[in-house]
Amino acid sequence: MFYKSEKDTIAAISTAVSESGIAIVRMSGEQAIEIADKVYRGKNNKRLVCQKTHTIHYGYIADAENVIDEVLVMIMRGPKSFTGEDTIEINCHGGVYVVNRVLETLIKNGARPAEPGEFTKRAFLNGRIDLSQAEAVIDVIQSENEYALQSSVNQLRGNIKNKISDIRAKILYHTAFIESALDDPEHISVDGYGEQLRVVILELVSVIQKLIDSASDGEVIKEGIQTVILGKPNVGKSSLLNALVGEDRAIVTDIAGTTRDVLQEHIRLKELSLNIMDTAGIRDTEDIIEKIGVDKAINSAKESDLIIYIIDSSVSLDGNDFDILQSLEDKKSIILLNKSDLGGKIQVDDVRIEYLERHTNFKEFNIPVIEISAKTGQGIDELEDAIRDMFYHGQLSFNTEIYITNMRHKNALIEANESLNKVMQSIDLGMPEDFYSIDLMDAYESLGSIIGESMGEDLVNEIFSKFCMGK
Amino acid sequence: MKFSANSVWENKDYYDVAVIGAGHAGCEAALACARLGFQTVVFTVSVDSIALMPCNPNIGGSSKGHLVREIDALGGEMGKMIDQTFIQSKMLNKSKGPAVHSLRAQADKAKYSRKMRQVLENQNRLDIKQQEVVHILTENQKVTGVQAFSGAIYSCKAVILCTGTYLKARCIYGAVSMNTGPNGLQAANYLTDSLKELGIKMYRFKTGTPARIDKKSIDFSKMEEQFGDERVIPFSFTTNPEDVQIEQASCWLTYTNEKTHDIIRNNLDRSPLFSGKIEGTGPRYCPSIEDKVVKFADKERHQVFIEPEGLETNEMYIGGMSSSLPEDVQYAMYRTVPGLENVKIVRNAYAIEYDCIDARQLKPTLEFKKIEGLFSGGQFNGSSGYEEAAAQGLIAGINAARKLKGLDGIILDRSEGYIGVLIDDLVTKESHEPYRMMTSRAEYRLLLRQDNADERLTKIGYDIGLISEERYKRFLTKMKYIDLEIERLAHAYVGTGRKVQRLLHDYGSTTLISGISLRELVSRPELSYSILSEIDEDRPEFPGDLKDEIEEQVNIRIKYEGYIHRQLRQVEQFKKMENKMIPEDIDYDSIKNLRIEAVQKLKELKPVSIGQASRISGVSPADISVLLIYLGGRE
User: Fold this and answer.
1) Among the listed residues B352, B359, B349, B353, the one whose alpha carbon sits nearest the alpha carbon of residue B435
2) Chain A residues lying within 8 Å of B620, measured CB to CB
3) A303 and A409 together in one domain
4) Who has the most CB within 10 Å: A122, A411, B29, B57?
């Protein structure tokens, strides 16, 4: 079985991410301060290692050259910290994306994502929490573990799980072949297998890399769907926003930060959360398109997960509409026909025809079109259902993009690829075949942690079921 | 024969330990106890079958060769015996990495058996007794002695069960079924009930063996001859390599074909395996030929190895074609194989069923959790193979002796040896077939090489008391030579002289721009320590009998340093969990938040450490966290 080391430096976001403007990323372990120094940019090249314990420092977090956020960093040296180890707390300005980026940067620089309850566990094991609190700690760990396992495995939609299972099956098969030959060299020969394996590994590495690349999208989904509302002036973007916010819904506005120029609205629908981008523009002026033009709006749409395109159904479609329709291609989109209460000139069919005319390679028009009245609230429920269907059941499985929704998953994918790259190195160096299986099985195990499966007797079973052993 | 209570009497000879069975496990167990100072009696149903090899005529093989080396390093006997009785020897996987090199020798079976019998006979404090043991006697869950079939009672403080495949054994082929042990030997029909009365859970396993055939009836011209290695490497670290350079016997390779497979397929209904007459579970790694034909139907042929059973017999073993088909089908199928057209069968192939235990009832010391002083080893524990048996017998013997001395048991962990992996798997994991060692079962196999078994275990064997002072000193000398030589190579630089460049060029290695240490050159994949000897002017002379071993170690340690280092780091992690011991009196029910399934498994298996607990199926990582915290709180 595979153990996470107690010596590792661990990191996690330690505040609820979506709600507050300020979020804290906490890091604990021997290398905490050292790692923080790699990403912290203070005044006059200030170094955190040289600072006193229990002090707070203003500065920036940067991933190499890219500044991510303006932060306050707090240093607490062990044993006088919650965990009893050297601890760093980074106060970010929040925003789901930014906080995740900060955490990711720490991981890139040597920390690993904390297991559920791990800070508390360390605190206990280092004697920072007394015995009476032990049971509570156990509660936390057991429940968080169960939750984490459940949610992280459940979050994996069928096709991701299948994809990972496929990769694992391939790794297992090739390892079993090598192993069967090693165990029974007189019956099975593995000579020269490296060249064959190289092809397989190259393919697997690229599949896994795609999963890693899609992981940042996946994180957004978990924390909130990046949404852009497109539409000409006065089509009702602001009314829609108000309708969405409604009585039982919360609207949270980020404090405008000095380092950010993009404002977001964070909206919670029933079980969905949307990060609506550029809402400042929409709310303040209602004429964002006039100001920056369709092109710029479409550009920001490119970075989103969902485009909501509002058409004023009481006015005929024009060039601007056609441009937007043209751009709705590989993104998940929903088209709203607003002002249905005023008796629309435009019908669903009109939109369909215009769309298909601009996408001659498409046979079908798959974008949901919903008639709403932002004023009366009619159609809002349908809109919510449509978003939910799109992100939680339906559309995604048609889609080739794969979302990995958890940073731990991403880390496991990266580990798997590192192991596979080591196999490639062994092949390149002309190492004997038995060296390959060691790293192959590490990759197998890393991937297994994503779908909640351990190695157990898999290899031995595979050897016997696929290869005929002697005697 | 029927056991009669009327003949009960008490044998007054003094014994500390009784070993039941004198197969490969029993021999090692008995020798270990006697050598560690205890009066020992070893029971066998037939003195003539001490250390019998009832199946294949070899010792060693992939991962099994590792076990023999480890047995030897700990002070066991098997390696020395095979070095004296082998008739052919090969290092398997020689073209692969050092971790999977494995020695395998063809044995002269009769000679092996005789030699081992002599060692037992000549061992101080060890008595051999031909008797079937029918009862284990206990008081308050503690062993007090054994009772033999004759009625005789032998008092003792520890018993080691090494009954192999003899308990309620039944041999079967076709419709023929005999209640005998292997080779027609007497089965032991009473002990199972006595064990069940003690509350021990029994399994029924099955295995099988091919026919033995008459050499005179074989046409070798239709087969490929298989030779041994030119330079033989001994199993035992105590054997002088020059003593094993003997004239070797040959084995022969031939193949089954579609005709063979047709005959098998057409007669499957007459196989006791497929008709349900055999209830025991067979091993997947040595399937009968009928299993192979059914399971791998698309394979056009299977290899068949014809191996001599010894030098003083004409019997040959048909490796790869074990079977329990009826006698007439056996004749028909063997005679389809090239070279065997007119073959005469001396002994029929058969399947054998026998009682053994669920080894999860044992502690890692191989003592029963429930019964103090009762130990067990070998096929009785659900393993298979001579080497697996011997390894367990040795550990059971050592630990019985240590128990009597009031010392803690010896537990090798998974990072110390294949023996550790073997025993940990047996006592921790559920298994429904005879367990065979495989290199893929060892997580740290780069460290657990057959070539460094002495480095890993000689010190332990010495501390136990099975390695002599002289041997230990010799071992220390070897280690010192290795360390010094590696150190020297790190500081021995070669320049860009013609001789050096020439050598590098000849071996396809990049030539030098500036000076480089020999150590760095050794680590190049295309070079080796021995290749570099001609440009290494200051290379020291090593003692003759250690020379090969020292050079090999220097080469391996330098070449695979990176990989070895990585595994060492993993072992560090692993050890932490292994060293977190779970007290015997732990009350799992009182630990809030362990899942019910985990509580049940932990209560049943009573793992000794957090590490072992984590390998129990049904215990999750979260449960382990809970346990860690609970134990942390207790401290």
Assistant:
1) B359
2) 145
3) no
4) B29
What residue type is assigned to position A225 of the chain? I
Residues from chain A contacting residue B62 (CB–CB below 8 Å): 182-185
Q: Is residue B418 part of a domain?
A: yes
Interface touch A183/B440, C-beta < 8 Å: yes
Same domain, A96 and A230: no
Interface touch A3/B593, C-beta < 8 Å: no
Residues 6+ apart with CB under 8 A from A369: A334, A335, A336, A337, A348, A351, A352
One domain for residues A214 and A297: no
0.90 surpassed by pTM: no
- Domain closes at, from B541, B568, B595: B568
The ipTM is: 0.87
User: What is the distance in angstroms between the Cα of A386 and the nearest Cα belonging to chain B?
Assistant: 38
Contact B475, B74 (CB under 8 A): no
Give the pLDDT confidence of A320-341 residue by residue, as tens digits: 777 777 777 767 888 888 877 7
Best B527, B588, B629 residue to mutate vs chain A (most A CBs within 10 Å): B629
| Residue B106 Cα, gap to closest chain A Cα (Å) | 14
Nearest-neighbour CA in chain A from B26: distance (Å): 24
Task: Report CB contact under 8 Å: B526, A430.
Answer: yes
Q: Please give the Cα distance from B344 to B590 (Å, whole number).
A: 67
Substitution target from A124, A182, A460 for chain B, most B beta carbons within 10 A: A182
**CB of B66 closer than 8 Å to CB of B452:** no
Q: Which of B314, B316, B307, B317 is nearest to B88 (CA)?
A: B307
One domain, residues B200 and B226: no
Are A435 and B563 in contact (CB < 8 Å)?
yes
Residues A228 and A213 in one domain: no
What DSSP assignment string belongs to B274-285? HHT---SBPPSS
Which residue among B315, B350, B385 closes a domain?
B350
d(CA B371, CA B159): 10
Same domain for B447 and B493? no
Q: Residue B543 maps to which CATH number?
A: 1.10.10.1800
Residue B473 contacts A, CB cutoff 8 Å: no
Q: Is residue A152 part of a domain?
A: no
Same structural domain for residues B601 and B628? yes
* Binary contact (A137, B319; C-beta < 8 A): no
- Total H helices, total E strands in chain A: 16, 14
Residue in A134, A138, A460 nearest the CB of B441: A460
Nearest CA in chain A to B575: A3
Shortest Cα–Cα distance, B8 to chain A (Å): 45
Domain annotation covers residue A277: yes
Whole-angstrom Cα distance, residue B207 to residue B350? 9
CB contact under 8 A, A432 and B97: yes
DSSP conformation class of A130? -
Å from B210 to nearest chain A CA?
A: 9
Both A317 and A264 in one domain: the answer is yes
pLDDT, tens digit, for every residue of B519-561? 999 999 899 999 999 999 999 999 988 999 999 999 999 999 9
Domain co-membership, A296 together with A173: no
Q: Do A183 and B287 touch (CB under 8 A)?
A: no
* Residues B306 and B406 both lie in one domain: no
Distance CA B521, CA A296 (A): 60
Structural domain for B40, as ranges: 12-207+354-464
Q: Which residue range is the domain that position A419 belongs to?
A: 158-218+405-466
- Residue ranges, chain A, pLDDT below 70: 1-6, 15-21, 94-97, 116, 129-159, 214-224, 233, 238, 242, 245-273, 277-300, 302-303, 330, 343, 391-408, 469-471
**Mean pLDDT within B15-37:** 98
Which residues from chain B sit within 8 angstroms of residue A185, using beta carbons? 62, 92-93
